[in-house]
Amino acid sequence: MRPFVYEQPTDISAAVALASNFTTRDDQPTRANTQFIAGGTNLADHMKLGVAEPNRLLDLNRLEEQKLRHIRVTEDGIRFGALVRMGEAADHREVKERYPVIAESLRLAASGQIRNMASLAGNVLQRTRCEYFRETSWACNKRVPGSGCAAMDGFNRQHAVLGGSDACIATYHGDFAQALIALDAVVLTEGSRGARKIPFAKLHRQPGDTPHIETDLAADEIITAIEVPALPWGRRSLYLKIRDRESYAFALASAAVALDLDGETVREARIALGGVATVPWRASAAEEILQGKKLDDASAGAAADAAFAEAQPRQHNAFKIELGKRTLVRALLETRDMKV
Amino acid sequence: MDAAAPRPKENQGEPLPRVDARLKVTGQAHYPADLPAANIAYGALATSSIARGKVTKLRLDDARAVPGLLDIVTYGDMDKVDKPKFGNSGATSIGPLHDRTIFHDGQIIALAVAETFEAAEEAAQLIRAEYEEDRPTASFDSPGTKTVAAAGKSPMFKEDVKAGDFDAAFAAAAVKIDQRYSTPTQHHNPIELFSTTAYWQGDQLVVHEPSQNVTGWKVELARQLKMDPANVRIVSPFIGGAFGSKGPMTPRTAIVAVAAKRLGRPVRCVTSRMQAFGTQTYRAETRHRIRIGAGKDGRITAFAHEGWEVTSRPDLYVVGGTSATGRMYGYGSVLTHVSLVQADRNTPGYMRSPPETPYVYALENAMDEMAVALGMDPVEFRRINEPKTEPIGKKPFSSRSLIQCYDQAAEAFGWARRDPKIGAMRDGDWLIGMGCATAIYPTAVAPCAARVRLTVDGDVRLQCGSHEIGTGVRTVAGQMASERLGVAIDKISVEMGDSSLPPAPVSGGSISTASVCSAVLKACDAIRTKLFAAATAEGGPLAGSHNEEFELADGKIVAKSGASTKVEDVLKAMQVGAIEEYAEFAPKGATPEALKKLYAGTPEFHGGEQDEDSVKYAFGAEFVEVRINRYTKEIRVPRIVGAFAAGRIMNTRTARSQLMGGMIWGIGQALHEATEVDRRYARYVNRDLQDYLVPVNADIKDLQVILVPEIDHAVNPAGVKGLGELGNVGTAAAVASAVYHATGKRIRDLPIRIEQLLA
User: Fold this and answer.
1) Rounded Cα distance, A162 and B279, in Å
2) What are the sequence ranges of the domains in chain A?
3) Which of A135, A253, A330 sits opposite B274 (nearest CB)?
4) Is the pLDDT of residue B223 over 80?
């Protein structure tokens, strides 16, 4: 690990000013010399591995704005402060009641220790777990632009079948983000160019030719809150995560589902898919298929087929298409059968 | 009594808590890398990123510029040191800094030494190698492998066992199967990272390193450094998980010792989790072809087991499990053959039940298939093929309680409730499957020395250069002394893990409890003899009585008649403050050289199938329930029951703990564990615990261990059969059997994953 400067700005504007001072407009947040750190559960690992090499860290944990640490429930929805820890949100009574899909996506992620450290904003910005990305001796376009992709024809069992490109098929492994994208969440940011509200669906970028550009954020921009709009039928929602072991593993496939039902007929469906795509993945085509239909094995299967219609398998991850479909079918039927 | 401390049955010892339990759980146990050392410098390894070729140039300038860098040990710096030897004390013959040839991914190319750990790591990362790269061979099916017969390539694998005329018997068999199985590369991944801390005191070298073999390492390290072994000391009082990975010494140890010599200060090198995959040993991937033929009555008439195993280019490591699988059942005829397949890989090595885990997995999966082919209950099929003598040499088993294990485990598991129809058992969307398999492990024992001192204050000091690798050997050795000397366990101090102690064999092959306890028994009995002699001498307190009529209890010598005297008073009468005995135990059948070899760090193993009078094995039976979701096919193991018979159980708590750990590992081998190899580059891909999966707590629900009473005086004086490796043999086959029962899919390649059930 290289020596680095460590600073603890005391408010948001100071943090932004520092970041703005030490970065340029062209800097990518993940590659800039100055980077923010909150829980550190991802960045500290990457610094040890040589994957991230910032020479200055701005620790956000001392920011005095208390709104960063609160979960606020109103008639308009829920507002999560950026520094709220995953564990707090997972255990929050009203979150569990109103949006089971959010609470479950958090509870099924990581370990108790990590959930107690990791911030919500940091969680949605976590980087891929691609083995070839995490070890610097491999070619990786995301880590070193233009160096190639060792995963493409390598061991790619955990890699994405949706949203990939010729440059990168690294999976976005987060769980919470799937719940957020399904629920039309909005991300609030502050930066040198002022405050912004970014639809969650616009926060992450598919790799395309520039897999090193992962989000819409500037290097001096901080997420301050995540807002989830009110959804009266959000109680009928769940997060289903399929993995190789019972706990503490990334999803091979997951589904975040919320359903508005009229009897067995779908008024509206919200669907996001995890473990199978390069970014948080809203399955709009599947939602459309279900709208106005009776939810049963057949319609759920049709929705799943639509969700994976564009899937592109590689050597070891082809099973994710079938598994992803089955995961979605099972999640839809289990959501339908929820007692709410 | 709770589940962790099973009530002892016949021939089973008390479930005493581990003597070092409190030290361990309160963080006071000092593992080798915890050693505080003044003026210590830190080393970090730089390793190759190719698997085959030559290092043409090393760029060291950036590394040398790191503030705090002290030294870089690399090519040329080890020239005065001899290359490592491959064997029980050496993991590989590759001297990574003796030669610029790269034999495998992750081979050491330099050691950076700095004032801080961070600076050393940074410098190591900045060492840039330029290579002349050759196309590497990754594994089976890769172009460029070389296949050789295994028999005779290892002293532990002398021959391909056979019996009768397999070809004729198989041709004539009414029911037969011919199937292939495979197991993947696996790495031990002990939680304690691999480390070496070395310092010099004049001509004396002291190395603190987690080791299962301090005597062997002392001799091998002295050989490499051209020193008198008396000037080398290996210290390893606590080991945070070993599983075979800390049995043979790796080339790193000598490199760190040289660095400490060059700097004139202690040097510590802790390898990273990632680097351990290339610098330590691992379980070789294996392939198997099994043919079984039987009559319609279920009696096996023909058994053939062929194995193929990956090894490195320079070293022929043999897994070789046919010695056990060829003797498991009453087969009639037996044919076996093992081949080694050389590739550009680091040298594999011992990993918990090294031969039995993969070979018995294949055998037991085949046995399950055969039971299906015969339409028989798999337990019944094994019962029918229970042998009177082993099929190769027609020798009796010293004891064999396999059927008792099956019966007790089946009863506890509720096997009778199993509906044999495929997919018949369900709970909502979850398919339920039940399966079983046999566990077997050879019972070996080796020469061992121990020193025991009984003082006038009633304290006992027990010294033995064995190793506490988590098995509880320190505790059971203390228990043996406690029992023989009539002294409470808290008055006994047990010293282990230091090559300056009386030598013990490598803690491998499940020999430690038997070997150490036999030596301790011998030392204690020598003390008893002296005490009894003094007590019964003319004028002594128990004069006129015979020795054999006494027991030692609560600090007293008690005669059958009820007369007693304090041990303290006997010592006083002898005018001594302590009695100390140094005992050297050599097993029955030991050669005249046996003790010399113990001191030389190359102990003889006896037992297993090598003895003239009988073959010696411990057995067990494991039953597994799996649940598989009918949509998404994830496999979970809500229940597992294992019953094991292993002669005298010294301590039911530590025995259960070891068997439980083995069973959990078996579940991991069935469902989780595999080191993935990028076949283009012959490089490991998932080199950390994020991607190398093992079971977590949530994966293990209801686990039951049954200790089946068994008495066997033939195995060794202590009557102990090793059980440290027994528990993870057969488990994966039991899981495969249960998966088949639930789904009708026979998975023959480990690990069993969702994609195989979706296919």
Assistant:
1) 37
2) 5-57, 234-336
3) A135
4) yes
